[in-house]
Amino acid sequence: MLKVYRRYRLLTVNIVYWFLLLYIIAALVWWYIALGQQSRRMAAYELAQVHATLDSAAKPDAFRSALSEVKDHEHMRNVEYTGEGGTFLGLILVLALFVYRVIRREMQLSGQQQNFLMAVTHELKTPIAVAKLSLETLAKRKLTEEQQAKLIHSALEETERLNQLSGNILLAAQLEDGRFTPVEEIIHLSDKLEDLIQSFSRRFPGRLTNPEIKPGLTLRGDPLLLELAISNLIENALKYSPKEEPVSIRLFREGRMLRLQVVDQGEGIPDDQKSLVFRKFYRRGDEQTRKTKGTGLGLYLSRAIVAKHGGHISVTDNHPRGSIFTVTFKEG
């Protein structure tokens, strides 16, 4: 129902916009035609005055000069009307394009925000339901120590998901408002990446394979922020690639730069959407039918964090399929 309403609202706005634009252009064209007709009537009146006051046989030079002056006046008026009309038309089209792009961007942002709210709702429901069920089971049933430990572990994992989700939302707001000041210290990136890979390997057994990490690489930055940025990239690769396909992680030095690559074998990203995936709230597809979980903040936060550390993030195609997310830092 919400999707139908949004489409109806967008269609209504587009119809009203194009109607008003066509009406303004039609009025401008009518104004130009009316002025042209007025100019021709004025020229005809001036020619009649010349014929009435001057004898072409007695004063041929004066007659020809008067006719030439009348034609010059008509030509100047036409040039003036054409110049004014062309200027107004150009301004109208430029402003119309600007307004159209603003309206379209606002509508897209509104749709993405609606998707974000729906995604957050979905993301909140699952961990809350799992944690609640685990705690209710612990409270109502007598379980073995192993069963209790399993339920407690499940509840803690879902609580961590909630904590990460709320942290992402808060951090996104702080980064956008410029209210977050990162800590700067020496980070042993190789060791940090090894720890993250071990953590993800426990959560997703067999998915992270063949890590290629050059030891001893360091840089200056905020360890918690960088851990979040890298975690988002790894989680994104795991989320959008088939469960039977591995995800590779590489860290190496190239000149004075450090390059981190997260390589997946998923569906890949079309060229026209490679820059869009880093926008806040952007997710491919519709939240009503999308099966992959997420809020559209992960890659946005990764790019913002990398930029805070003077780095750059990009995405290219993996062959034969999939994507390669590359992060470049200055070694420090």
Structural features, described:
The protein is elongated. The protein has two domains: 1-180, no CATH class; 185-330, Histidine kinase-like ATPase, C-terminal domain (Heat Shock Protein 90, 2-Layer Sandwich). The protein has helices spanning 2-53, 60-140, 145-177, 189-203, 223-239, 298-308, and strands at 185-188, 212-213, 218-221, 248-254, 257-263, 312-317, 323-330. A hairpin with a 5-residue loop joins strand 6 (312-317) and strand 7. It contains six helices and seven strands, in the order αααβαββαββαββ. The longest helix has 81 residues, at 60-140. The protein has 332 residues and is α+β, with helices and mostly antiparallel strands. The strands form two sheets. It has a five-stranded mixed sheet with strand order 2-4-5-7-6.
Kindly state the mean pLDDT as a whole number?
Answer: 80
Query: What is the terminal separation in angstroms?
Result: 53 Å
- What series of H and E elements makes up the topology? HHHEHEEHEEHEE
Structural class: alpha+beta
Biggest sheet, in brief?
Answer: 5 strands, mixed
Q: Proportion of β residues? A: 5-15%
- Based on CA atoms alone, the radius of gyration comes out at 34 Å
Estimated helix fraction:
55-70%
Discrete helix count? 6
Write down the overall geometry. elongated
Number of strands: 7
Uncertain segments = 286-290
Total individual domains: 2
Strand order of the largest sheet: 2-4-5-7-6
